Amino acid sequence: MTGHPHPEEFAYAVGRSVYFRYLTEDDARGDWHRWFNAPHITRNLAAQAWVNTPEAQVAYLENLSRTKDRLALALIDRKTHKHIGIGSLSKIDVVNRRAEMSLVIGSTEHQDGLHALEALAMLTEIGLVRLNLHKQVATGLATSEAGLRLTRTLGYVESGRMREHAFVDGAWVDCVHLEIFQRDWLTSPRRPKSIAWSGETR
Amino acid sequence: MSQDLTEIVAELLALAPEQVSDDMGPSNTASWDSLATVNLIVAVETRYAIQLDLDELMAIENVGALRKILADKGIAA
To answer: Most Cβ neighbours (<10 Å): which of A5, A30, A80, A101?
Structure first.
């Protein structure tokens, strides 16, 4: 997009309705840090006890540039180029070839399930195809029903559960582990057919 | 309009079937949230014994779009 400060052609991965790009300090000082103070988001992350600040978010961003065990990306709506969420692969283990996936859709108008579904599929493709990992893991609170079901829709299966793992809204909540293997993803109809990587034209 | 898909959508959104129209989707229906989307996917795949690919899922912008996807598979919904 001509004139846009972070044009789509420099995106890390481009899908049908969203793309992932690098995170910036403007992101950290903008919506990104605000999302992690918003109850409708922190409730699903069991992260309601502390506040988040622009400075803390900038510090997190600076740490990102010094590590290779975490890949965090801004999720952008292709129609508006609005920053709508954050996707990440963390605990990237290149010896055992596994990582943990997470996604936060901060923009309420994009919490329709479809943006999340494509973003989760793209993160799975990034981990299991671009990074050639053997297994990808996703964890979520049992109360985060939509997130867990969307992840299951992509073929992730439950492999474990930590009981009463988080205290949310006055109640103990289980944490559910879901995982998928590369061999299962490669033959899945849920794989994105039209993803474009950085440097490719879409 | 066949009642089948309409009834699935009505049940998921807690609406009467006559309140469901083909132009209804997450962008214009307050109760159509991410949970409704994934529940609709699961309900349709179970009802018609199919598995939609990601591009088909991403095209479900409204009830009519889903009906067309099913019609393209030879399913009158």
So the answer is: A101
Q: How do beta strands A83-93 and A98-105 pair?
A: antiparallel
Decide: B43 and B9 in contact? Cβ < 8 Å: no
By C-alpha distance, which of A136, A12, A189, A10 is closest to A86? A12
Contact A24, A6 (CB under 8 A): yes
Residue whose C-alpha is closest to residue B20's, from B36, B35, A139, A122: B36
A114 lies in some domain: yes
CATH, residue A141 = 3.40.630.30
Q: What is the pLDDT of residues A33-64, one digit of tens each?
A: 999 998 888 888 877 778 899 999 999 999 99
> CA-CA distance, B58 to A117, in Å (whole number)?
8
Q: Per-residue DSSP letters for B30-46?
A: TT--HHHHHHHHHHHHH
* Sheet with A71-77: strands ordered across: A157-168, A171-181, A135-141, A98-105, A83-93, A71-77, A18-21, A13-14, A196-197
Smallest CA–CA distance, residue B38 to chain A, in Å, is 6
Residue contact B39–A111, C-beta within 8 A: no
Nearest CA in chain A to B54: A190
pLDDT tens by residue, B19-39: 999 999 999 998 999 999 999
Contact A145, A184 (CB under 8 A): no
Q: Which chain B residues contact residue A17 at CB under 8 A?
A: 58
Topology (CATH level 3) of domain B3-72 = 1.10.1200
The domain ranges of chain B are 3-72
Residue A109 within a domain: yes
Could you tell me whether strands A171-181 and A18-21 are parallel, antiparallel, or unpaired per DSSP bridges?
Answer: unpaired
Vertex A171 angle, CA A53 and A161, to 5°: 90
